[in-house]
Amino acid sequence: MKAIRLVTPTQPLVDADLDPPPLGASDVEVRIEAAGICRSDVHYRAGTRPVPTLPITPGHEVAGTIAAVGSEVSDRAVGDRVAVHYLMSCGQCDPCRAGLEQFCTTGTMLGLSRDGGYAESVTVPARNAFQIPDSLPIEVAAIMMCSSATSLHALRKGRFVPGESVAVFGCGGLGISAIKIAFALGAVEVHAVDINPEKLAVAEALGAVAVPFDRADSVTADVALELVGLPATMKAAVDSLAVQGRAVAVGITHEPFPLDSFSDLVLREAEVIGSSDHLASEVAELIDMVDRNLIDLSDVVTATVPLEATSINHAMDQLENFEGGIRTVITP
């Protein structure tokens, strides 16, 4: 089986040939037809977010067709089109029972702590393979598994309600998804903040107010999503908050940002909230929203590359440098 592997942090990914993953009784094997390239993958390659075990096959935005089912699987079948929820949880521990499977005490994550989607196939628990409608393009289904579901979760963590305004800091895959979802959920206004004029143009075409980052101080919003992972954008997100506003931190970073607890929070009764991944229930909700034509995420995917290390490394280089389009998808 062809796969693209991260062997050494700070070094390019490499081509590899692996044995197909074993199929457990409750598993399905998914023949991968699309795998999104996420900024998280860039962090893994750069070493800014440690990977537990190397080498590993990255990729957590995965969709394809079921090629085999385990002996105990009765609700999935060979040939089903599926998108894969990347968090593998036990369902039994206290966090899982509380509906917080992203904090499962024995959980693993596709592309981080177990081999992921930069490959020809992947094996996952059947419950992680969500059936998708025939009308949903496979590349779009893949990016929905992180870009879109994580944005939906962030809006929920920010306790967004219809009639509120939203500010989105970073107009990549998550940001464009967040704009679309915010409008679908009833946002009265969405501000899109970025340094890239092309991404701002896309956001403006979706109905958002496009704001170059050097003019971010003009933004006021009830909910601000920070999707980049930079101290400057996190500080700008907090600064944008209206009275009782909520800033939601999503981007991966290890750098602190300046915060004056009195002027930034107390005087406005503002909040800073962390948002980690998303829930399986939100994946199902998102697929339903797309199936009912409440949102169209097709223009989030702006480029495709083959399952080949050189092309994938180039796409990751562009993402690392805040260049390129919205979301690039590998199509084996």
Domain tally: 2
Quaternary form? single chain
The radius of gyration is 19 Å
The unreliable regions are: none
In CATH terms, what is the fold-level topology of the largest domain?
A: Quinone Oxidoreductase, Chain A, domain 1
State the end-to-end distance.
11 Å
Query: How many strand segments?
Result: 17
Number of helices: 9
| Percentage of residues in DSSP E strands | 25-35%
Largest sheet: 7 strands, mixed
Q: What is the fourth-level CATH superfamily of the largest domain?
A: Medium-chain alcohol dehydrogenases, catalytic domain
> What is the percent of helical residues?
25-40%
Average pLDDT taken over every residue? 95
Instruction: State the secondary-structure class.
Output: alpha/beta
- CATH structural class of the largest domain: Alpha Beta
CATH architecture of the largest domain: Alpha-Beta Complex
The best one-word shape is globular
SSE string, helices as H and strands as E:
EEEHEEEHEEEHEHEHEEHEHEHEHE
Describe the 3D structure:
The chain has 332 residues and is of the alpha/beta class. The chain has nine helices and 17 strands. The protein has helices at residues 39-46, 94-97, 138-157, 173-184, 197-205, 231-239, 261-265, 280-291, 309-320; strands spanning 2-5, 14-17, 27-37, 61-69, 81-84, 87-88, 108-109, 121-125, 129-131, 165-169, 189-194, 209-212, 221-226, 241-249, 271-274, 301-305, 327-330. Strands 3, 4, 5, 8, 9, 16 and 17 form a seven-stranded mixed β-sheet that branches. It has a six-stranded parallel β-sheet with strand order 12-11-10-13-14-15, with helices on both faces. Helix 6 links the parallel strand 13 and strand 14 (241-249). The radius of gyration is 19 Å and the shape is globular. 46% of the residues are buried. The mean pLDDT is 95.
